[in-house]
Amino acid sequence: MLTLTRALFCAAALTMASLAQAADPIVIKFSHVVADNTPKGQGALLFKKLVEEDQNLKDKVKVEVYANSSLFGDGKEMEALLLGDVQMLAPSLAKFEQYTKQVQIFDLPFLFNDLAAVNRFQQGPEGIKLLSSMDEKGIHGLAYWHNGLKQLSANQPLREPKDARGLKFRVQASSVLEEQFKALHANPRKLSFAEVYQALQTGTVNGTENTWSNYQSQKVNEVQKYFTESNHGLIDYMVITNAKFWNGLPADIRTELEKIMAKVTVEVNKQAEALNQDAKQKIIDAKTSEIIELTPEQRAEWRKAMRPVWDKFSGEIGADLIKAAEDSNKSQ
Ligand code: LMR
Hints:
The chain is of the alpha/beta class. The chain contains 13 helices and eleven strands. It has a single domain (about 1-325), classed as Bacterial extracellular solute-binding protein, family 7 (D-Maltodextrin-Binding Protein, domain 2).
């Protein structure tokens, strides 16, 4: 009798344990390297909020956001995604070179005239195709998020390309960006985002390129006297997930998450420019640095100096793809 009671008790305990297990939510760890008050930071938090509020996902999916390289920084985050230690990332488009050469297109200097052109390319057939260009490597692209156009910074004024000659510039892990600074006879140095402030402070590098929101949220204006509003390139993101994880999700959950991602993408891409302009204003108000505006002639000089980089990469990227991106500058 005692044995039977014990057996029944054990069976009940096991059922309860497996029920509890079945009810465990799917955890999506979303790791990134920037601050919360940036387009990507805001996007990650909005994704978390909308998943939490969604009645179909309630108790089924939990999103954890790790900002400011607090879980994984550059260099480690992609490996973590492939190992299943995180489920979502949104690396800058400059950081995919190891996995696809085509995505390097977004680093070509002076390719897009404005974010509207970037939108047309990303949402067009070529841009959409690039989202699955790494599927075979286990990385699936879900969306493009904007940050914005890049500006130059240094501790001396950069008005003409010759002003950059001999200076050391921090670049993201991108061969295109390395070549861009070499074309100016400057010295590029690949450093992770988390290292930027200190590298500028200690003089490891003399300057860099980034968006207003990344500059302001990292307090780069404390360690850079001059910013040049060059709008010479782009910092945007591909939101990516581990392909195996994504394909293994129950179909209804995956569809719901895709819907939410689409909503978040619209919102991020709508807000990004305003966030950057707000950050620029904060830098102006801080009175730490001078912002240099280029004359059209000066900007044309920068374009002329950086453009030879295109020829070096058109083979790897594909001339047709570059042509499609250039065409996106013409509004329909
Ligand atoms: C950088 O490394 O400069 C940026 O791409 C960081 C980011 O994610 O915006």
